Amino acid sequence: MAFVRQNVNLEREQLKLARRLARENGVAFSAYVRDALERHNAGVTLTAVLENSNAHLEFLLDQLREENATLRRSLQQDHQRLRDEMKAEQAQAIERYEEALRRVLSAAIAPTAPSKASAKTPAANPMLSPRV
Q1: Which pTM does this prediction carry?
Q2: Closest to 21 measured CA to CA, from 3, 10, 9, 46
Q3: What is the helix (H) or strand (E) element at residue 18, kind and residue range?
């Protein structure tokens, strides 16, 4: 028992409790302590693994947040660029429409020169002319 107390670093009350629990479970004291140490070590190992996993997950979350922010900025820039391009295209289309409309209106308002066909007076039909 002194070996266990020195190597496991248990206080006297903890040793008494371990001895009583070993007796209640019907196992030898050394087997009970060995099993308790294995459970403790497994718990410590599991805790360390979980802490490492948690730290890694937090790191991945930070990376995802940064990537999300980068993608969001890129998307906003693309959206603004497309909006500007669309406004420029609309302005050009409006200018082309206005120019075409001006040409049509100018052609409609401009005085037309008399055509040669309308300037000719029709010749008298000799069959219809009165006889003198």
Answers
A1: 0.46
A2: 10
A3: helix 12-25
